[in-house]
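Field log, afternoon session.

UNIT: design team B
ACTIVITY: writing a sequence onto a fixed backbone
BACKBONE:
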């Protein structure tokens, strides 16, 4: 059976401007092309999880506008359950303005819109969805208090499950956009997936390479995170659990657009863990998916399907 994953997170419409380089302050720069692409870290990770083979439920908010309706249709096209996505009247769906340069690097500005309307009562209304899930996946593009309430709900389920001999709900947190979290939060996270910026902010260690990623991961584990994964783009990833720590290299591919590469990694990793893969295998699976994502343009348009990920792994 497909593992059930509940995703609490954001849904956005991405406005993507392709440009030769990033504009300077006050400069008007002629771009190449413009695209509307479905996005949002929560939705991207949900789509990645669905395309990797999970049964996915989305807990989120959209506005009662054309972008919101389009985003819902896109999620449903990937067989994602949207019953717990609340449509907020008189509110715009979240929007991301993305500048993508010829080197494949991006800069992003967010207007949160309806994502800011996701509240604790939405989590309470979706409690059965979280209870029945194998894994809860969260990010920080929705209010922090709501995300923490969702994590606490999953942990309450886990405590009750242990008392009855059932399997607990695992929590994967991708704390992006980066913001400070206290140790009490980190102690409730089974898998913490961070990039350089997020690792640096959370650990107070400047992360620029694998040795500094190792140092940051050690601090985050001391603060309470069980497993820490630091993603470093072309430098690969640093992985640390209770027993060992090691690096894994990035796949060598031609980069077209890095948008949603991290989301693809996180969503794919969540599925691998929910299926019972060991940590190293789950990370390699997620690395393969993220590498394929950067070879395509856009957010959800770039997320690969499982068959392509497995074929790339088999070719190693």
């Amino acid at each position: 059976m497909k593992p059930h994953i509940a995703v609490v997170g954001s849904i956005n419409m991405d406005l993507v401007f392709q440009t030769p380089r990033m504009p300077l302050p006050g400069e008007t720069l002629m771009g190449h092309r413009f695209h509307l692409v479905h996005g949002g870290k929560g939705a991207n990770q949900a789509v990645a999880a669905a395309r990797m083979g999970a049964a996915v439920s989305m807990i989120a908010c959209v506005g009662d506008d054309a972008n919101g309706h389009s985003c819902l249709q896109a999620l449903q096209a990937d067989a994602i359950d949207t019953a717990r996505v609340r449509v907020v009247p008189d509110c715009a769906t979240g929007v991301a303005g993305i500048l993508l340069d010829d080197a494949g690097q991006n800069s992003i500005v967010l207007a949160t819109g309806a994502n800011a309307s996701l509240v604790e009562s939405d989590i309470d209304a979706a409690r059965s969805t979280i209870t029945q899930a194998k894994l809860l996946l969260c990010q920080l593009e929705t209010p922090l208090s709501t995300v923490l309430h969702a994590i606490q709900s999953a942990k309450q389920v886990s405590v009750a499950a242990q008392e009855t001999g059932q399997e607990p709900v695992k929590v994967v947190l991708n704390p992006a956009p980066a913001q400070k979290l206290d140790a009490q939060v980190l102690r409730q996270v089974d898998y913490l997936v961070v990039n350089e910026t997020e690792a640096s902010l959370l650990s107070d260690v400047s992360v620029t390479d694998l040795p500094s990623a190792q140092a940051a991961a050690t601090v985050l584990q001391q603060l309470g995170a069980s497993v820490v994964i630091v993603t470093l783009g072309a430098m690969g990833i640093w992985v640390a659990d209770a027993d060992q720590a090691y690096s894994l290299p990035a796949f060598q591919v031609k980069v077209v657009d890095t948008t949603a590469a991290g989301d693809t990694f996180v969503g794919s990793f969540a599925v691998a863990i929910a299926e019972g893969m060991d940590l190293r295998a789950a990370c390699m699976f997620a690395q393969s998916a993220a590498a394929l994502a950067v070879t395509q343009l856009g957010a959800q348009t770039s997320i690969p399907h499982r068959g392509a990920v497995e074929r790339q792994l088999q070719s190693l």
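LOG NOTE: The longest strand covers residues 55-63.
NEXT ACTIVITY: expression trials, pending approval
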